[in-house]
């Protein structure tokens, strides 16, 4: 699963490291979450690097035409019981103290996303768009 990051500030900033994630139920209560910081991916490894985030130009929200500056990627086991259902995830990016809440109840998953192994997830370091998605094609 990938969460996009935009810089809604007015100045360039740098982000480095791992985000802290906490699953929430539909009422905003805590759901079992055990995150493991890793660089191992299905296809190799993720690099731990400082990502420079340019401001997107609007403090009240980034226009949809502006591509995300970085991504938080995480994955879990979908087989080993017990499983938990998370309607939202509270995200604390490295170096910040104010969390952002992202909705996990999307089309096809109206109750939220299911994570097994009692909510255990593997979190990759924050990645640039190129690192997370690959180079863009012209």
The coarse silhouette is globular
Largest sheet: number of strands, sense, barrel closure: 5 strands, mixed
Provide the β-strand percentage band.
Answer: 35-45%
Sequence stretches where pLDDT stays below 50 over 5 or more residues: none
Mean pLDDT: 86
Helix content: under 10%
Q: How many H/I helical runs? A: 1
Helix-strand topology string: EEEEEEEEEEEEEEH
Derived from helix and strand composition plus strand pairing, the structural class reads mainly beta
Rounded radius of gyration (Å): 15 Å
Any idea how many domains? 1
Distance between the termini: 26 Å
Strand segment tally: 14
Q: Could you outline the blueprint of secondary structure elements for this entry?
A:
Elements: E1 2-5, E2 13-15, E3 20-24, E4 34-37, E5 40-41, E6 44-45, E7 51-53, E8 70-76, E9 84-86, E10 88-92, E11 100-103, E12 113-115, E13 120-123, E14 127-128, H1 129-133
Parallel strand pairs: 4-13
Antiparallel strand pairs: 1-8, 2-7, 3-10, 5-6, 8-13, 8-14, 9-12, 10-11
What does this protein structure show overall?
It is a single chain. The chain is mainly beta and about 140 residues long. It has one helix and 14 strands. The chain has one domain. The strands form five sheets. Strands 1, 4, 8, 13 and 14 form a five-stranded mixed β-sheet that branches. A three-stranded antiparallel β-sheet has the order 3-10-11, with no helix packed on it. The radius of gyration is 15 Å and the shape is globular. The model has no long low-confidence stretch (mean pLDDT about 85).
């Amino acid at each position: 699963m990938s969460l996009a990051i935009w810089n809604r500030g007015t100045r360039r900033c740098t982000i480095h490291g791992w985000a802290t994630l906490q699953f929430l139920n539909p009422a905003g209560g805590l759901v079992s979450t055990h995150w493991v910081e890793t660089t191992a991916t299905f296809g190799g490894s993720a690099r731990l690097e400082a990502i420079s985030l340019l401001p997107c130009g609007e403090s009240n929200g980034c226009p949809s035409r502006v591509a995300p500056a970085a991504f938080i990627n995480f994955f879990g086991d979908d087989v080993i019981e017990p499983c938990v259902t998370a309607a939202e995830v509270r995200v604390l990016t490295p170096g910040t103290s104010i969390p952002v809440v992202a909705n996990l109840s999307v089309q096809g998953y109206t109750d939220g996303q299911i994570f097994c192994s009692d909510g255990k997830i593997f979190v990759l370091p924050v990645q640039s768009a190129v690192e997370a998605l690959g180079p863009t094609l012209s």
